[in-house]
């Protein structure tokens, strides 16, 4: 069963996409397979562009629907359980046993917080106690 981590922005107005890039850079030092699960094509393109530009000192190899890249952005779920999955969708991932670690980043706005609460409740119903990191 996967670990679930929620990153909650309580004071910061940082956007989910920006924090995802920073967190991804840290995780890649320990784990070479990160999957950004994102069904929205516009958000996929925004994530792709941001990974190119957010830090000029450290490029993160990535691609849309390129599972051989260290970071894959896709509307589909990863093909194996060796991936750390960043969930950019508005629903929790019920097939938690299929992933090593699921990361949920919750922005500091009421809509995002409500979606985050629903995701958190579903993971608990599935028998998982998510870890929460307040930022």
Task: Determine and state the CATH class.
Answer: Alpha Beta
* SSE class: alpha/beta
**CATH topology description:** Rossmann fold
Order of helices and strands: EHEHEEEEHE
Give the N-to-C terminal Cα separation.
26 Å
User: What is the alpha-carbon Rg in Å?
Assistant: 14 Å
Protein name: DNA polymerase III subunit chi
GO molecular function, one term: DNA binding
InterPro entries: DNA_pol3_chi, PolIII_chi_sf
Organism: Acinetobacter courvalinii
Task: Explain what the structure shows.
With 135 residues, the chain is α/β, with parallel strands linked by helices. The chain has a single domain (3-134), classed as DNA polymerase III subunit chi (Rossmann fold), CATH 3.40.50.10110. It is 31% helix and 23% strand. The chain has 3 helices and 7 strands; from the N terminus they run E-H-E-H-E-E-E-E-H-E. It has a 7-stranded parallel beta sheet, sandwiched between helices. It is globular and about 40 Å long.
Jot down its keywords.
135 residues, alpha/beta, Rossmann fold, 7-stranded parallel β-sheet, 3 helices, 7 strands, PolIII_chi_sf, DNA-directed DNA polymerase activity, DNA binding, DNA_pol3_chi, DNA polymerase III subunit chi
What's the quick description here?
The protein is of the alpha/beta class and 135 residues long. The protein is built from three helices and seven strands.
Secondary-structure blueprint:
Layout: E1 3-8, H1 16-28, E2 34-37, H2 41-53, E3 62-64, E4 71-74, E5 84-87, E6 101-106, H3 110-125, E7 131-134
């Amino acid at each position: 069963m996967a670990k679930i981590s929620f990153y909650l922005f309580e004071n910061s107005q940082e956007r989910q996409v920006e924090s995802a890039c920073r967190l991804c850079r840290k995780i890649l030092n320990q784990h070479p397979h990160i999957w950004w699960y994102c069904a929205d094509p516009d958000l996929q393109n925004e994530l792709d562009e941001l990974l190119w530009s957010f830090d000029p000192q450290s490029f993160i190899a990535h691609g849309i629907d390129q599972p051989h890249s260290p970071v894959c952005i896709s509307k589909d779920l990863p093909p194996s359980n060796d991936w750390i999955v960043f969930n950019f969708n508005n629903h929790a991932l019920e097939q938690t046993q299929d992933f090593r670690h699921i990361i949920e980043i919750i922005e500091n706005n009421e809509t995002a917080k409500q979606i985050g609460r629903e995701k958190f409740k579903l993971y608990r119903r599935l028998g998982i106690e998510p870890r929460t990191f307040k930022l």
